[in-house]
Design goal:
Layout lengths: L1 H13 L5 E8 H7 L16 E8 L5 E6 L5 H5 L3 E3 L8 H8 L8 E4 L4 E6 L4 E6 L2
Antiparallel strand pairs: 1-2, 2-3, 3-7, 4-5, 5-6, 6-7
Length: about 140
């Protein structure tokens, strides 16, 4: 019985995904202090006004997913260098984005691309942004 218990623990440890790292930052300043921007997990071009940042990245593939909030007055700062696309199907990254954010995709989101490997979806009503990159 003891061997079975140890075997189950080992199996559960081996099945964990140690490549996926997650962080939360109350403010952009907190992310800077932690080095998340310097390490490239949060892009440098996001304005410092974003907050309540949930970031997840894959150490093996370098994929990055983020959800964060912004103030309505900062919307233009947020999308300044982004190109608006009609919908998610216009993006090369649509499959990965849909897989991660399938519960939020709807017609009220505004989609943007920084370059073909990065996608940003913005919910203006709730002031939440969803980001994906596979750089």
């Amino acid at each position: 019985m003891k061997k079975l218990f140890i075997l189950l623990i080992l199996i559960s440890l081996l099945s964990c995904d140690f490549e996926i790292m997650k962080s939360h930052y109350a403010t952009y300043k907190d992310a800077v202090k932690d080095g998340a921007i310097e390490r490239g997990w949060i892009p440098k071009y996001f304005p410092s006004c974003i907050y309540d940042i949930y970031e997840k990245h894959d150490l093996d593939s370098n994929d990055v997913w983020m959800i964060f909030k912004f103030n309505k007055k900062d919307y233009n700062k947020l999308i300044k260098d982004w190109k608006q696309i009609k919908d998610i199907n216009d993006s090369e990254e649509k499959f990965e984005f849909k897989r991660e954010y399938q519960n939020i995709i709807n017609s009220e989101l505004h989609y943007y691309q920084y370059h073909p490997k990065e996608l940003l979806a913005i919910d203006l009503k709730n002031r939440i942004a969803y980001y994906y990159s596979d750089n």
